[in-house]
Amino acid sequence: MSALEDLRKSLNIKLNNGKMTLKHTINKRTSFLPFQTRNPERAKFKDGFSPVLGQFFRFVENVESDFELNDKKIINDISNHVEMKENDRPHFERILESYLFQSNSIRVFHPMMYKYIPLTDSKEAQGEEEIAKYLYDALLGSDSRQLGNILELKENEHVMARLIQHHMPILDKKENQRKYTPSLPFIKKAFEKDLETLLSNRDFFMNHIKLFLAYYYFYSTSQLTLKINQFEKMDASSPTPIYYNLDWEASNRNRMAATTGFKVIMDNARRLLGHINTLEHLNYIMETENLTYVALHERFQEMSENEQSKIIEDVFVWTTEYSEIVLGNQNEIEKLTIFKESYRQLQQQLSKGLSKETKYRYALALNEIGKVYFLKTRGSLGNTLNVTQDFLILLTAVSVKHEKISLKQLFIEFEKRGIFFDRYSKEAVVELFNKLNLIEKKSDSGDAQYVKPIL
To answer: Which superkingdom heads the taxonomic lineage of this protein's source (predicted)?
Structure first.
């Protein structure tokens, strides 16, 4: 079967009432992002990021997500295992229940309990599971060994914790197949180093792992959104600058967070689905998998002249065919001789062929996670990217690590993690750090300022 025939088959092209039809299909040859085109399956995070966190740790431990927790059975099993006076048993069971459950959900008193946090009981579970799979595949890289130690229950743990561990249900094993392509290299590298830092302090890890994973999901997907829109000109070595405000500072329309912030991300996100479809089709035509425009361009350059001519011809044939089926017009398609011009033409047609509603629904994934943690509505400015004090402490902890660094270097480290501040926000950060006694001055003039480690 030829490459074009494979592509046609994947899109289910068929004759329907005398008219050719096709179904836009993605995530077969390319799996870059865990976004949904349908509203019911898109994660809305009404329970926060906890369901994603639970599924992420089930991937880490290679266990099934289909399980039920019977709180009464667990409490009875533990109680029956402990010798005590019978009139003490109800009191013990009440203590046990308060230790193990809170607000009708499992209480995570140790990292081993993360895997028992269930997915949402709705169609949104599909979206939550896809986000967890993305975090596991694209960022952790399926290498969960560094998380192994923190998931183990040590001998010196609380006796109640050891009792509970022995009586929690054993989840069935499930092998995971990689689905999502690795994240941008500079993001994956930062994630791995920051996770290692976070793991050095269990209490800090448990207090911040949810926010940490939520941010890297938002950061990696928003950066890929910006990069893909740059076609083959994308710079995969460093983040595209996007500016944040601090939660407690005032802002205005001249601030960088208003001009070069969330609006830029969403403008690009609404064009994203056209690019995702284009990359899907190009990977079929070039018989490759998970290649971006840059990688496809590099692959094209390595081909012989005859091979290059065939690829350009196939892109032209497919662009013409698609335009006829979906748009009812093939006359406007030019026969181009330059590869990047030919796939730009394909991208334009695909973008026209996708409904505005579908493109906007796909983009909403970034808005949903942003609303939970990283956005603040500021009157006429609308939503701006936002750093709370808790988020700033997390960023500072993973940026500084275990040895003090200069204030100047700290802001560079923030930028490596996709957080850009203008000078007003930087001044507000310094003011807060002085209040929290995190700044160390090396001279009376205050020129050389260092930030102390938090961990």
So the answer is: Bacteria
Helix, strand, or coil here: 347? helix
Strands (E), 359-425: 375-377, 383-387, 405-406
Instruction: Show the domain range for 194.
Output: 50-231
DSSP symbol at 373: I
Q: How far apart are alpha carbons 429 and 452 in whole angstroms?
A: 14
> What are the b/e assignments for 199-238, b being 16+ CB within 10 Å?
beeeebbbebbbbbbbbbbbbbbbbbbbbbbbbbebeeee
Radius of gyration of the chain (CA): 26
Nearest residue to 34 via CA among 366, 277, 385, 373: 366
Residue 183 lies in a domain: yes
User: Structural domain tally of the chain?
Assistant: 1
Closest-CA residue to 455 (of 255, 200, 229)? 200
Residue 312 in 3-state DSSP? Answer: helix
What value does the mean pLDDT of the chain take?
94
CA 385 to chain centre: 16
pLDDT recorded at residue 443: 65
Q: At what angle do helices 159-167 and 71-81 cross, to 10 degrees?
A: 120
Q: What is the 3-state secondary structure (H, E, C) of 127-172?
A: HHHHHHHHHHHHHHCCCCHHHHHHHCCCCCCCHHHHHHHHHCCCCC
In a domain, 81, yes or no: yes
Closest by CA position to 415, among listed 373, 455, 442, 387 = 387
CA atoms of 41 and 368, how far apart (whole Å): 12
Q: Are 348 and 336 in contact (CB under 8 A)?
A: no
Query: Is residue 197 in a domain?
Result: yes
Phi, psi (5° rounding) for residue 197? Answer: -65, -45
Domain-embedded: residue 153: yes
* pLDDT of res. 203: 94
Query: What's this model's pTM, rounded to 2 decimal places?
Result: 0.95
Which amino acid, 310?
A: K
pLDDT, residue 142, reads 63
